[in-house]
Write a structure and sequence with these properties.
GrpE_CC; 4-stranded mixed sheet; disordered C terminus; alpha+beta; 3-stranded antiparallel sheet
Length: 263
């Protein structure tokens, strides 16, 4: 009986040892886990503390950076304001200078315009005057060439004898032609001078003879030798005349040269 008991007990020892070993292993695992948890908690606390410190440092740095940026922005704004004011002041000065320059240029151009306008007006008037003078010269030269024909008509009229029928017919023909010439002269502004009994005027008359006269006073035209003509108030041809030397003069009549009459 005793042997069996010991044998049963001897058979249970390995099992007990195995269980004890398992318990030790479990206990060791718990201890290791507990130790690891403790280390992790300490490490987490340390990490949290380090994070907080770093966060605080970053906050301080960010605050300082923000403050510096704010100060820098203020300085930049002040610089921009000063630069803007300086530019505005400079722009006003430049605009005033440009305005003064343009005003001077405007006055100069206005003066040039006035002078050019005056020169052009004088040129236009001079051209008109020159054209009128040229037209008058051409007209005068043409009429001077026609005047001898008119003189011949005057002489022919003196030779006609209207007493006969033939003479009357010629006289009528002559009068018709002469009237046409006179009408043309009138249309062109030509008018004959009536000089007999007028005071001698060297600007209008040319004295060919001087003779005493009991009828006319001195320097009065006594006779017309060749008719003079005017064109619009301007002498076209001087009248050739006889001039009285006065009544009771015993001096013989003298012939006056053309050169002497103009002096």
């Amino acid at each position: 009986m005793n042997l069996n008991l010991y044998s049963e007990r001897g058979a249970g020892l390995p099992r007990l040892c195995k269980e004890a070993t398992s318990l030790q292993y479990v206990l060791i695992q718990h201890l290791v886990l507990a130790s690891m948890n403790s280390d992790m908690q300490n490490s987490s606390q340390d990490s949290t503390n380090d994070f907080l410190e770093i966060s605080n440092e970053l906050t301080d740095i960010d605050g300082k950076s923000t403050q510096n940026e704010s100060i820098s922005d203020e300085n930049i704004c002040e610089d921009k304001t000063e630069n803007s004011q300086s530019k505005d002041s400079l722009s006003l000065e430049e605009l005033q200078s440009a305005y003064n320059t343009l005003s001077l240029e405007k006055e100069s151009l206005q003066g040039q315009y006035v002078r050019i306008a005056a020169d052009f007006d004088n040129f236009r008037k001079r051209q008109i005057r020159d054209q009128e003078e040229l037209r008058l010269q051409i007209t005068c030269s043409t009429l001077e060439a026609i005047l001898p024909v008119v003189d011949n008509f005057e002489r022919a009229r003196q030779q006609l004898d209207p007493q006969t029928e033939e003479g009357q017919e010629l006289h009528r023909s002559y009068q018709g032609l002469y009237k046409q010439l006179v009408d043309i002269f009138k249309q062109m502004g030509v008018s004959p001078m009536r000089v007999e009994g007028e005071l001698f005027d060297p600007n209008l008359h040319e004295a060919v003879l001087r003779e005493p006269s009991d009828v006319y006073a001195e320097d009065i035209i006594t006779d017309e030798l060749q008719r003079g003509y005017q064109l619009n108030g301007k002498v076209l041809r001087h009248a050739l005349v006889k001039v009285s030397m006065g009544p009771g003069s015993q001096v013989e009549s003298t012939q006056v040269s053309s050169e002497g009459s103009t002096d």
